[in-house]
Specification:
The chain has 18 helices and 28 strands. With 576 residues, the chain is of the alpha+beta class. It has three domains: 177 residues, Threonyl-tRNA Synthetase, Chain A, domain 2 (2-Layer Sandwich), CATH 3.30.980; 174 residues, Bira Bifunctional Protein, Domain 2 (BirA Bifunctional Protein, domain 2), CATH 3.30.930.10; 92 residues, 3-Layer(aba) Sandwich (Rossmann fold), CATH 3.40.50. The strands form seven sheets. It has an eight-stranded mixed beta sheet with strand order 11-15-16-23-20-19-17-18. Strands 1, 2, 3, 7 and 8 form a five-stranded antiparallel beta sheet that branches. It has a five-stranded mixed beta sheet with strand order 25-24-26-27-28, with helices on both faces. Helix 1 packs across helix 2 and helix 11 crosses helix 12. It starts with 10 loop residues before the first helix and ends with a helix. Bound molecules: zinc ion (2 copies). One zinc ion binds next to helix 1. The site of one zinc ion has 5 residues, from loops.
Length: 576
């Protein structure tokens, strides 16, 4: 082995090379499979093959073993430039490669890369040799249409991952396992939180009692913050005339994502894809004075957006969802202050739910023929971030044409990054709807509008929360905070008394009245991730105490009922 003499490739180079090694192994073991494309992706790579028979888990094991041999053989990666005709002749029996080669523009070089006896059409970006691959693993097989188009043949996509060292690979696999345990779709069923119902259609969420109570708590938390910051709640219809969306421009730019139209009395209606037009109608309903600004309308607004069934995913990619939406109407001078209070609110939300690693990404307004960049708005956002001492990255021109925006990202308990909030400045909708306010100078002026949703949508936020906490919600959020488990039926009466005394102040207490064995009952409630299991036997019943089994705490303790109530109240108060 001479791998040590090669320079260390980057992870994308390493993974791209691993894709070639996979295709080499497939060519040897399954000569009927036609290789198509095989790029590096985040955390790994894939390669798509056209083959009539499906690849089995055993096939993957054989392929992986063969890949290790190819890595050990340390084949150099040899590239050469060829003419179009040479390339077409070389891949004559592979229509996919022929298609790719034919599409390379005239004058651009066509390159072939070989390792051992396998040659691929590729534009490069590899390790020098297969020996550079520290650790490789094939992870799964899935169907994928050629070029992602469902009119094309279905191919088989083999996914894998590659790392510089075995230790890195092991850590990654452990992370995947942890993520799979936290999958919100799995936990959603196990903990009876929510479901999707085939009869109702895809991407529509049914919140079960235990999920709906968590949502209610999250909403209450958000509403409290909004009230303190002077937001006014509004409620707008789900169904509105299409004309409104013509004015807003959604019909022109967004029709593919909208449900409808529905025709009633020769009027066309659409399900609302966004809450903004409704809030604008309320703003525009009467003359506004500068004295009223900023006006902040908030709504847990349910919207419907069409997504193809293939991309729907649990709670995180759906067709109907409720945003913690708000629209702020202000003067240009108020922009910075409005951004600052929004940042405060975002921080409050992220901290309460124990997220870490907050990251702020500013996308400046995309300039096109309709607009010019607005340096004042961007400067206001920058000043707001800087006044809060927040670091941020800038994507120049990466925003929408209607204004700059700020995305807020967090890391969850196992280090994954999620985008939560977005704050978007909008100069275009006030223009389209002719919004104005009477200034102190007595003249009419155009307000600036800010769209902001900080949790994003209640559905997606709940999905993230489930994975972040692994279903083990802290006591203030847990659908069931404590379960009283009597040791035998003789303590049932006492268990009911305990539950009643603890159930004040909206505490969520259940009683286990089943006839199962004690060990089974405790295991069951632990699996349900309940924060406290309170066991009551003869002794507890005569002393007026409970035996507390706290989630994640090894030792049990016996305390008076009132003491436990105070403890639980304190945990809820401190959002623990
Ligand atoms: Zn390549
Ligand atoms: Zn909006």
């Amino acid at each position: 082995m001479s791998a040590v003499t090669h320079p260390t490739p980057s992870l994308p180079e390493l993974r791209h090379t691993a894709a070639h090694v996979l295709a080499y192994a497939v060519q040897e073991l399954f000569p009927d499979a036609k290789p198509t494309i095989g790029p590096a992706i985040e955390n790994g790579f894939y390669y798509d093959f056209d083959r009539a028979q499906p690849f089995t888990p055993e096939d993957l094991e054989r392929l992986e073993a063969r890949m290790r041999e190819i890595v050990a053989a340390d084949h150099p990666m040899l590239g050469r430039q060829v003419s179009r005709d040479e390339a077409l002749a070389f891949f004559a029996d592979n229509p996919y490669k022929v298609e790719i080669a034919s599409e390379i523009p005239q004058g651009e070089p066509i390159t072939l890369y070989s390792i051992g006896a396998f040659t691929d059409l590729c534009r490069g970006g590899h390790a020098d040799s297969t020996g550079a691959l520290g650790a490789v693993k094939l992870t799964s097989v899935a169907g994928a249409y050629w070029r992602g188009d469902e009119r094309n043949p279905m191919l088989q996509r083999i996914y894998g991952t590659a790392w510089h060292t075995q230790a890195e690979l092991d850590a990654y696999l452990a992370h995947l396992e942890e993520a799979a345990k936290r999958d919100h779709r799995k936990l959603g069923a196990e903990l009876d939180l929510f479901s999707l119902e085939e009869e109702a259609g895809g991407g529509l969420i049914f919140w079960h009692p235990k999920g709906a109570i968590v949502r209610e708590i999250v909403e209450r938390f958000i509403r409290e913050g909004l009230r303190e910051r002077g937001y006014q709640p509004v409620v707008t219809p789900h169904l509105m005339s299409e004309k409104l969306y013509a004015t807003s421009g959604h019909l022109e730019n967004y029709a593919d994502s909208m449900f409808g139209p529905l025709e009633v009395e020769e009027q066309r209606f659409r399900l609302k894809p966004m809450n903004c037009p409704g809030h604008i109608l309320i703003y525009a309903g009467r003359p506004r004075s500068y004295r009223e600004l900023p006006i902040r309308f908030s709504e847990f607004g349910t919207v419907y957006r069409f997504e193809r069934s293939g991309v729907l995913h649990g709670l995180t990619r759906v067709r109907g969802f409720t945003q913690d939406d708000a629209h702020l109407f202000c003067t240009p001078e108020q922009l910075q202050g409005e951004f600052e209070q929004t940042l405060d609110e975002a921080l409050r939300l992220m901290q309460a739910f124990a997220f870490t690693g907050f990251e702020y990404a500013l996308s400046t307004r995309k300039a096109d023929e309709r607009t010019q960049t607005d340096p004042t708005a961007e400067a206001a956002i920058r000043r707001a971030l800087e006044s809060h001492g927040l670091a941020y990255v800038v994507d120049e021109g990466g925003g929408a044409f209607y204004g700059p925006k700020l995305d807020i990202n967090v890391r969850d308990a196992i280090g994954r990054r999620w985008q939560l909030g977005t704050v978007q400045v909008d100069f275009v909708l006030p223009e389209r709807f002719g919004l104005k306010y009477r200034g102190s100078d007595g003249a009419d002026h155009r307000p600036v509008m800010i769209h902001r949703a900080l949790a994003g949508s209640m559905e997606r936020f709940f999905g993230i929360l489930i994975e972040h906490f692994g279903g083990a919600f802290p006591a203030w959020l847990a659908p069931v905070q404590a379960v009283v488990v009597p040791i035998s039926e003789h303590q049932l009466e006492y268990a009911r008394e305990v539950a009643q005394r603890l159930g004040r102040n909206a505490m969520r207490i259940e009683i286990d009245e089943t006839n199962e064995k004690l060990g089974y009952k405790i295991r069951h409630w632990k699996q349900q991730r309940v924060p406290y299991v309170l066991v009551v036997g003869k002794q507890e019943a005569s002393d007026g105490t409970v035996n507390v089994n706290q989630r994640g705490v090894e030792t049990k303790r016996t305390v008076p009922i009132e003491q436990f109530f105070d403890e639980l109240s304190a945990a809820v108060e401190q959002r623990l």
